[in-house]
Amino acid sequence: MSNNRQKLELTWIGKEKRPKLEPRILIEDPDKSYGDRHTENMMIFGDNLLALKALEQDYAGCVKCASIDPPYNTGSAFTHYDDGLEHSLWLTMMRDRLEILRRLLAEDGSIWITIGDDEAHYLKVLCDEVFGRGNFISTVVWQKKYAPKSDSKYFSESHDFILSYAKALDKFKLGRLPKTTKQTDRYTNRDNDTRGPWKASDVLRNEERDYAIFPVKLPSGREVWPPSGTSWRFTKEKFDELIAENRIWFGVEGNARPAYKRFLSEVTDTIPSTTIWTYDEVGHNDESKKEMRAIFDTDLFATPKPERLIYRVMQLATNPGDLVLDSFAGSGTTGAVAHKMGRRWIMVELGEHCHTHILPRMKKVCDGTDQGGISQAVNWQGGGGFKYYDMAPSLLKKDRYDQWVINADFNAPMLAAAMAKHENFRYSPDEVHYWKQGQSSEKDFIFTTTVHLTPEHIDRINEEMLPGESLLICCKSHFDGADGKYDSITVKKIPSMLLGKCEFGRDDYSLNIVDMPRSGDEPAFVPAGPPVVETGKEKKKAKTEASSQLNIFDGVES
Ligand SMILES: C[S@@+](CC[C@H](N)C(=O)[O-])C[C@H]1O[C@@H](n2cnc3c(N)ncnc32)[C@H](O)[C@@H]1O
User: Fold this and answer.
1) Helical H segments across 302-356, by residue range
2) Among 135, 221, 238, 418, which is most buried by a count of CB atoms within 10 Å?
3) Same domain as 362, residue 325
4) Which pLDDT tens digit goes with each residue over 11-28?
5) Same domain membership, residue 198 and residue 335
6) Is there an atom of ligand 1 within 6 Å of 285 CB?
7) Interval 24-70: pLDDT, tens
8) Does the structure show a pLDDT above 70 at 258?
9) Beta strands in 10-90 (DSSP E)
10) Is 116 within a domain?
């Protein structure tokens, strides 16, 4: 019997497993930051799952546009990062990140994801689950190549997809594109009309309406009727009115079938974007490689996107001043475009190319010396800056007795900031009261101390507290009965108060396992479905797939 309550969903191995992420603090490295010290732009070096978690407390609901270009999972290993995650791991990797990205989006925000054929359709279903089917905006087809690859075995693949979702479709406003000169050039002024250029448009309707079937007398004296199966778009009275206003065109000789004169000054100067973005409009892969070559002489990043492509996304999804986030930054195209367009940005990149590619590129953008990409189009002259952040190490570490202890790398302010973050307080040390290090509401404070908490200490704090205020004290040790001595003061011990709340000591959730160990002893994984008659080549492929499936269990935390 069928179960009517069963929901439609994509399943994969390991879907039910969710990491318990440690909310890390971000630490600025001023030596790597650049330009304007008041900038809000952030370059974060590290795994994006931890970085997104680190951003969540301060930026939930703030991001107008997340524009991401994750590894496509094509099975090929590129120079700067690995792109061969096993399918289930890829889905888990994406799901975990998309869920936080959704929470970071503003109510009127949206997410745009570039993706190839290998995962596009799985990603669509996954996104339906994360963002809600009703918040799907569209799938755009981007023509990434301009010439066929002659050695293609099957199709010469010439497009990628861009999936877009709104956080809440009813609150999202999709931008429009300015008309191109190609489009406005279609408006001409063949009769020197004082109202300016116009375009001839059809006056026929593909349907016979009796009241709109009548002869129209041309200036040449000839009479024309609408062809059979059609009728005029206007009534006889309206037609006469339009002729009197010189809004009907009968050709240079006054003997052509009538056409309506649509004036450029009367139509909007923007148009909606179509869902096919051709390379002449938004660039192609070779264009982005050229952009790379203009910035870096050697060691080019393998899979950059053209600036014009991201420019189009920004035109449709953002306004000046909006916050843009790219958690798979690559060579930094999103940041470069957002910066040149006057948007604020946050980028995250795990690879060393964060230092070898993104930092030099963004410095050139700030200096105004990067005149490639969209610089000319937006008249980019330079300005602004960015702050560079490392992720703090894990707050807790195992000591040699296998006990969790506070990581010695944490100094007092770092510890206070980390504890505030763990307990959902905003870290903002008060200049008057040392015990007010952060707050969760106007009257609720947190205080972290590494010294032993004595009765005298807590009494002094209590005397300073105002009626209605409450305080959480996090300390390494305290006198018996500290918690409960005062109703308004809660006392907890570090690290025991943190244990079990999240996973400590893990710095990388990228699960990049392209060079997976292959052991002959491992049992073969048999996929569900009918048996396949294997050719030699397929046998080899099946072996690779089988070994990657086995590694699912190695790669996911139990
Ligand atoms: C397709 S590239 C992005 C290219 C980018 N759009 C550009 O124009 O240069 C994907 C990037 O995501 C990065 N990446 C993959 N997994 C990551 C993770 N877990 N955390 C941070 N970055 C990650 C890779 O190192 C790679 O640079």
Assistant:
1) 307-317, 333-340, 353
2) 418
3) yes
4) 998 899 999 999 999 999
5) no
6) no
7) 999 999 999 999 999 999 999 999 999 999 999 999 999 999 999 99
8) yes
9) 26-28, 34-35, 42-45, 63-68
10) yes
Same domain? For 415 and 474 the reply is yes
510 ligand 1 Cβ < 6 A:
yes
Whether 406 maps to a domain, the answer reads yes
The amino acid occupying position 492 is: K
Of 366, 291, 367, which is closest to residue 330 (Cα–Cα)?
291
In a domain, 66, yes or no: yes
Last residue of a domain, one of 362, 391, 420: 391
Q: In terms of domains, do 409 and 425 share one? A: yes
Structural domain count, the chain: 3
Instruction: Look up the domain containing 291 and give its range.
Output: 28-175+272-391
Vertex 437: Cα angle to 433 and 439 (nearest 5): 105
Measured CA to CA, the distance from residue 61 to residue 265 in angstroms comes to: 40
CA 124–ligand 1 middle distance (angstroms): 20
Whether cis (ω within 30° of 0) applies to the bond prior to 495 is yes
User: What is the pLDDT, as a whole number, of residue 538?
Assistant: 39
User: 476, 493, 510: which is the final residue of a domain?
Assistant: 493
Instruction: Give the E-state strand segments of 155-213 in sequence order.
Output: 159-166, 177-178, 198-201, 204-205
The Å distance, Cα 303 to ligand 1 centre, comes to 9
DSSP E strands in 374-502: the ranges are 385-391, 396-398, 404-406, 426-427, 438-441, 444-449, 470-475, 489-493
What region, left, alpha or beta, does residue 382 occupy, with left being phi > 0 and alpha being psi -120 to 50 degrees? left
The atom of ligand 1 lying closest to the CA of 353 is: 27
Residue type, position 359, single letter: L
341: CATH: 3.40.50.150
Which residues make Cβ contacts (< 8 Å) with residue 349, sequence separation at least 6? 43, 44, 45, 48, 328, 329, 330, 332, 358
Q: Is residue 450 within 8 Å of 424, Cβ to Cβ? A: no
Structure tokens at 150: 């002659």
Q: Give the nearest ligand 1 atom to 511 CA.
A: 19
Angle value at C-alpha 305, between 355 and 95, nearest 5 degrees = 80
Q: How far is the CA of 189 from the centre of ligand 1 (A)?
A: 51
* pTM, full prediction: 0.84
